[in-house]
Amino acid sequence: MLKTRRFGYDGKGQVILRNGADLDAAWHDIGAQPSILEAFVPFEREVSVIAARAHDGTVECFDVTENEHRDHILKTSRVPANVPTALADEARRIAEKIAAACNYVGVFAVEMFVVADGPGRTLLVNEIAPRVHNSGHWTIDGATVSQFEQHIRAVAGWPLGKPMRRGRIEMINLIGAEVADHAKWLTVPGAFVHLYGKTAVRDGRKMGHVTRVTSELPE
């Protein structure tokens, strides 16, 4: 996979290279700009950690999120991720280590692949996003402090909030024409609809999202 170093997202700014591919055409397809060449990884699932780091080095992590993509675009995020507790703890430790190494202040996201490692599982960092992140939108309705408030707290020098999850969470992106059906969610218990106010509806464009909060108790 050949990816541009900057301004690539949701499958944009990248091209797949297979045996026999026209390399010159691929290079021009991404604008002949500085790029990264990545190998494919046989991962089981993708998870992400949304965290905040304060000026004094304090870090608060939200619960590990499991992400599902469709056509290279994040479609659904679920919390908590379906991973062992030890692996979730390791994911948070990785995020904290990255933030400290960068002396970062604010909210950031670290995406990771869960890959098989013999009889167990390990984590491979896939992407670092130094900002609030789509996979953390569930925190608006599903946690005691949102990623947006947490970011303001961090950069303003205020104490970070202690993020507590309100239940099992599913965040669903409304992509393209799906936004036209947003009203169906208004009658769903525990569902919160967020529309972004974008006037042009295009295939692959994130037009809003729905967060559904349900009880932790077995149904």
Sum up the structure in keywords.
single chain; 9-stranded antiparallel β-sheet; 4 helices; 12 strands
Q: Would you give an account of this structure?
A:
The chain is α+β, with helices and mostly antiparallel strands and 219 residues long. The protein folds into two domains: 2-37, no CATH class; 45-214, D-amino Acid Aminotransferase, Chain A, domain 1 (2-Layer Sandwich), CATH 3.30.470. The protein contains four helices and twelve strands. The strands form two sheets. Strands 4, 5, 6, 7, 8, 9, 10, 11 and 12 form a nine-stranded antiparallel β-sheet that branches. A three-stranded antiparallel β-sheet has the order 2-1-3, with helices on one face. A hairpin with a 2-residue loop joins strand 8 and strand 9 (120-129). The chain is globular and about 50 Å long. The N and C termini lie far apart (42 Å).
Q: How does the SSE layout of this entry go?
A:
Blueprint (H helix, E strand, L loop, with lengths): L1 E3 L9 E2 L7 H7 L5 E3 L7 E9 L5 E3 L3 E6 L2 E7 L5 H18 L3 E12 L2 E10 L9 H4 L4 H10 L11 E8 L15 E5 L10 E9 L5
Antiparallel strand pairs: 1-2, 1-3, 4-5, 4-6, 4-8, 6-7, 7-10, 8-9, 10-12, 11-12
